[in-house]
Amino acid sequence: MKKPLKIILGLIIAGSLGLNIYLIKEKNVFRQDKESFRVEEVLDGDSFSIPPDQTIRLANVDASELEFCYGQEAKEGLGKLILGKNVRIKKTGRDAFNRLVAFVYLDDQLINETIIENGWAKYASGGTKGGNETIIELLKEEGRKAKENKVGVWSEKCYQRENPIDPACNIKGNLGKHEHGEKKTYHYPGCSEYERTVVELDLGEQWFCSEKEAVEAEFIKAEHCFKNYQKP
Q1: Dihedral (C-alpha) 8, 13, 19, 25: value to the nearest 10 degrees?
Q2: Cβ(60)–Cβ(112) under 8 Å?
Q3: 115 three-state secondary structure
Q4: Strand, helix or coil for residue 86
Q5: Who's near 98: CB < 8 A, 6+ residues apart?
Q6: Which of 19, 33, 170, 213 is the most exposed place for a label (fewest CB within 10 A)?
Q7: What does the CA dihedral 148, 152, 155, 157 come to, rounded to 10 degrees?
Q8: Class of 31-154 per CATH?
Q9: What is this structure's pTM?
Q10: Cα dist. 150→69, 113, 146, 205, 223 in Å?
């Protein structure tokens, strides 16, 4: 065999071995929870990165975007827990952004649970493969208790039925899922569902002082609003 051909074959074999090692690590280490990984950077309240360039998303946890209510607090809380420390990662899958979704442990502490327990983020269903029912029930229960105790994102800072800053600005702008994407609606006093409608600032919902403001922000009047708005 000519020398250049040997070199080419050697490179192919080396590359194949390297790929196999990566796939084995991806398949076994994360899933079987055998190694710990140093947290290099906390990105927000429910995700962080480990070397060399892998983003981890906490399973069944949904923190606010950084610009919304409690987004920065959630990031700071997660950072105090794990930044610069070694954590164990139990992979459950990947999300739409190709991030590893996982249950994360610091020693025996389940970080997903701590985040939800402190109200830094909400419990989120779905996205977790079978075999983790006990953990999921635990996280769901912690989410229920956090809401009941009105902590973090469930406190009046983020979860509001009345506007504590300016009560006169009492039009509620809400976000909901729709078959064509996100649905943005507003409710004013007199709408049949107004009293039961909550403004969740951690989701990006907001208060408006007038219908004009709501419309300019691309919100539409809720279907059950039959009366004309009367400003108090």
Answers
A1: -150
A2: yes
A3: helix
A4: strand
A5: none
A6: 19
A7: -170
A8: mainly beta
A9: 0.80
A10: 14, 16, 6, 18, 30
**Tokens, residue 226:** 């039959």
Say yes or no to pLDDT of 232 above 60: no
Strand spans (E) along the chain: 36-38, 41-44, 47-50, 54-58, 61-62, 86-94, 100-106, 109-110, 122-123, 159-160, 171-178, 181-187, 199-200, 206-208, 220-221
Give pLDDT tens digits for 72-96. Answer: 999 999 999 999 999 999 999 999 8
- The domains of the chain are located at 31-154, 160-221
Reference 161, options 152, 170, 149; nearest CA is 170
Give the integer Cα–Cα distance in Å for 14 and 17: 5
Task: Please state the φ and ψ torsions of residue 43, each to the nearest 5 degrees.
Answer: -90, -40
